[in-house]
Automatic annotation (TrEMBL):
The keyword Phosphoprotein applies. It comes from Arenivirga flava. InterPro entries: FHA_dom, SMAD_FHA_dom_sf. Residues 23-77 form the FHA domain. Pfam families: FHA. This is FHA domain-containing protein. Keywords: Phosphoprotein.
Amino acid sequence: MDANERFLLQFSTGDSYAVRGGGLLGRHPAADPGTTATHLIRVPDAGRSVSKTHLQFGIDDGEFWILDRHSGNGTVLWAPGESPVRCEPGRRYRAPRGSRVEVGEQFFLLD
C-alpha cells in the first residue's frame, strides 16, 4: 500500500467520493494558506451541524487519517471492533476501512 491508495467515502447524504491524497470536508470547505488539499468535499447539511471546514483527511503509508479542524459539533470515529472516540481537535486519528466517521449530524463510511 502507498500514498496513492484509493479510499471511498460514502456519505449519509447519498453522495460518494473516491479519494487519493488529502483533502478537506465541510459545508463549504476552504484551504487555509499553507494547507494542501487535493479534494474539497462539500457535505450538504440544512441543519448546519457540519462546520464550513469541519474535517481534514489524508493518507500516510497507505492508511487513512482524519483531523477535526476545531468544528462546532465535533467528530466521532467508530473504528470496527472498537469503542467510539470523540476526536480531539487538531489531532490525527487513523481510520481503518470499515470505519464510520460522524461529522455533526452527518456521517460517512470508509471503504
